[in-house]
Design goal:
Blueprint (H helix, E strand, L loop, with lengths): L6 H8 L7 H16 L3 E4 L4 E2 L4 E5 L7 H12 L14 H9 L2 E7 L5 E13 L2 H4 L5 H11 L5 E6 L3 E6 L1 E9 L1 H7 L13 E5 L16 H19 L3 E5 L1 H16 L11 H20 L6 E2 L1 H24 L4 H16 L4 H8 L5 H13 L3 E6 L2 E6 L10 H4 L2
Parallel strand pairs: 1-10, 3-8, 3-9, 5-8, 10-11
Antiparallel strand pairs: 1-2, 4-5, 6-7, 12-13
Helix pairs in contact: 1-8, 2-3, 2-8, 2-10, 9-11, 10-11, 12-14
């Protein structure tokens, strides 16, 4: 018996004392439910299965949107659920194999003939406060392993580890939620990783503004209410952790899913055009069904995917696609485009800057020639607009109130 009709909504209320953006807490809640479910539930497609594990990365400027705090709220609850295994936040693929090997569990279930059997699996959740300590982009073997494990298929995964020699891991399952900054992604993610491989399997969630200012979080919720809410959330999360078996897709959900699939492959959305999004588009159906399992498990122990859950999952993914686009387009930029975005970030923070003021702010990170080229590009691309205030010409975020295709009027301060 659960306390809450929707665990995710109750969790969002539980985290209302936090300054972090709502979207950070929601996806932290998704990772928390996924960690509780493990590979105990799935959607069977005969030749493959969809399982509810995720690779989620919260992206935001350092110290502004408290990314790590968002993750800790959910993981602190998950740590109290019996039977949950966590992986190390800094590792090589060998260490990952070690962690999986020591996390084996067996789920008792009946096979189609009614015979009781024990189903083996090795499931770990890894919360990563700083992606740079976990993900070594130049470690090709680790990247390949992460790509391989995201599918969560029924398989034996054999690797030689430092501590146990050659091991054979049955049905490995990996769930990751991490944090990073746009600067780290720009510096460490090479262009060739965008569009396929690992990034097409990651849900990037971007936030750069506090949802509210909370100087003293302990004043937001009375101690007794906070403790009781936490107790109930933990109880319900424990109930979720006991769910097991295959999810069925009901008839209305299948009709909606078929119509969506046809639309998806015949009418590509304009905001996801280009080769960079090909891998994500190819895996979007999988993302939706993984997320639909989470939406269903958040509400009840019924192992049924309804049309409501598929629609909800699709809407949630669409809502963060602009975040993915923003992250993808920040990687592999040519210098002019990168500098243009730097200028735009300074102007967004101030609101209005003369050309002289903007140049003084960036003169240590680009040459004057680079600045002039970037300024022209930012205005031509709509990142900045030209305006006049108090008799001075300058630039403003976006199109401005007197936008111009030429930076000439902004160059005189």
């Amino acid at each position: 018996m659960r306390y809450y009709p929707n665990w995710l909504k109750a969790y969002m209320a539980y985290t209302s004392d936090s300054e972090s953006p709502d979207v950070f807490h929601f996806w932290s809640g998704v990772a928390t439910i996924a960690g509780a479910l493990r590979r105990r539930v799935w959607i069977d497609m005969r030749k493959f299965q969809w399982t509810p594990n995720f690779y989620i990365v919260l992206v935001g400027p350092p110290g502004v949107v408290t990314k790590s705090t968002s993750i800790r709220a959910g993981m602190r609850l998950l740590e109290q659920v019996p039977g949950i295994h966590f992986g190390p936040p800094s590792l090589t693929w060998q260490a990952l194999a070690d962690s999986l090997a020591t996390s084996i569990e067996h789920m008792k279930m009946l096979d189609p003939t009614g015979t009781e059997k024990f189903f083996p699996m090795s499931c770990i959740t890894i919360p990563v406060s700083e992606l740079g300590t976990f993900l070594k982009i130049d470690d090709g073997a680790l990247i390949d392993v992460l790509v391989d494990l995201w599918d969560g298929q029924l398989t034996s995964w054999g690797h030689k580890t430092r501590t146990a020699g050659q091991i054979d891991i049955k049905n490995p399952w990996l769930n990751i939620i991490g944090c990073t900054t746009p600067a780290w992604l720009k510096e460490h993610f090479p262009e060739h990783l965008i569009g396929g491989g690992l990034t097409s399997r990651v849900v990037f969630v971007y936030g750069d503004v506090k949802r509210k200012l909370v100087a003293y979080p302990d004043e937001m919720i009375p101690d007794a209410d906070y403790a009781e809410t936490e107790r109930r959330l933990l109880h319900d999360l424990g109930e979720i952790s006991t769910m097991q078996g295959p999810f069925a897709i009901d008839s209305s959900a299948r009709r909606w899913g078929k119509a969506w699939y046809a639309q998806h492959w015949t009418n590509q959305p304009p905001h996801l055009t280009g080769e960079r999004y090909g891998g994500y588009i190819a895996r979007k159906q999988t993302h939706i069904h993984k997320l639909a399992i989470i939406c269903a498990a958040a509400r009840s122990n019924n192992l049924v995917i309804t049309e409501e859950y598929l629609k909800e999952a699709e809407a949630l993914l669409v809502s963060v696609e602009p975040h993915m686009k923003r992250v993808f387009e920040s990687v592999g930029l040519v210098d002019e485009a990168r500098h243009a975005q730097e200028l735009a970030s300074y102007v967004r923070a101030i609101g209005f800057m003369t050309s002289e003021e903007l140049w003084r702010s960036v003169m240590n990170i680009m040459s004057q020639k680079e600045y002039q080229e970037a300024l022209r590009a930012a205005i031509a691309g709509g990142l900045l607009g030209v305006d006049r205030r108090n008799g001075k010409a300058g630039v403003v975020p976006g199109g401005g109130t007197a936008a111009s295709s030429s930076p000439a009027s902004a160059s005189a301060s």
